[in-house]
Amino acid sequence: MKKSLLFVVLAMLLSAFSTAFAADMTRCDVDGGCAVIKPGETIKIGMAGPLTGEYAMYGVDISDSEKISISELEPLEGFNWELLAEDSVGSAESAVAIANKWITDPTFVAVAGNVLTGESAAVIPIMEKSFIPMLSPSATGANLTEDNSVFNRIVFQDATQGKFAAEFIVNTLGLKKIAVLHDGLDYGKGIADTVKATLEEMGIEPVAYEALTPGEADYSAVLTAIASKGPEIIYYGGYTAELSVVINQMGQVGLKGVPVFSDDGAFGTEIIEKSGANAEGCYGTTSVPADSPEKLAFDKKYEETLGRKAGSKTPFPWFSYDVVQALASVIRNVAFLGDDGNLYIPRAELVTAVRTLSGYQGLTGEITCDEVGECNASGPTFYIVKNGAWELASK
């Protein structure tokens, strides 16, 4: 009798478990289905950015920080995590090829990126169709969060950066004769356009608005055109490689002593290394977070692991660490273990969960995403080069 009762109880428990599992499996019967990770496989998160080429400093710094972050993640139901760091060379075409490869892998669940604005814009439609969320530490193009459900970011966006920069130049520095220069790419031109528009809203028409061609070694022609307008300051939208050439050639065309105010894409020690004394008095934008015990612990590990100080290469290592940790926290919340031993992650649920992430405490502060995936409201901080180093800028 006791034996029969035991069998009945076991049968009931098995039936309840099977019913619960069946109910869970219905979460995979919607658009996007589920990522399926079998025993022995890993939960894959992707990162794509320039690991070689002129913009490699961004991709390398971000991938290095994300590798540190993913190495600290505890297994989920016995499944380990893996970061797929891929070299896009900063090319939208390469980023698309990488994305198309990722989406064929059933164990691939999210993107801790992309790094640059242009490549992010190119892969958003692919990720949208495949129900794969993106959480970028660095892509700041203002339009990236428009008209899609998958792209999110924890860094401030370019419209914020450009607006704050224009207001700082006019209201804090008290300058009115402002030239605007950009590299013609999505990121640099987007910020420059916002600076120009903000100045015009403030009743100030830029004395010049010019574009240069990325990758060239001589910008004297465009700088000469700007010099003829007698600017008090030049706002530059773009990256370090071109900005260093601009700064080093300004003295040759009558712009010696005119400061350049640039964006976070050109912030770091590399611009000082490439420009030397010519960088003195130039302004830059960064989003380096305030110190905290957690940030200082990361800074220590970063330096011990990589042999350089966090923030010396780019301003993104803390954001890069946070995007991996934040994605993992959301994945933990939606994943479930099947009675077949596989780990299931409902893709549509994950997209929604990332977009509605709220109150996550990271190295960069509280991460809370709004309805379009903007997860940072703190805005930028401005620095100036003094005595060969970046210092907090004031009037």
UniProtKB/TrEMBL annotation:
Keyword vocabulary terms for this entry: Signal
Entries under Pfam families matching the protein: Peripla_BP_6
Residues passing through the membrane, by range: none
Segment forming the signal sequence: 1-22
Positions of the Leucine-binding protein domain: 42-368
Cell inner membrane among keywords: no
Transmembrane recorded as keyword: no
UniProt-listed SUPFAM superfamilies: Periplasmic binding protein-like I (SSF53822)
Domain of life of the source: Bacteria
UniProt similarity note: Belongs to the leucine-binding protein family.
Protein name (record): ABC-type branched-chain amino acid transport system, periplasmic component
Natural source organism: Flexilinea flocculi
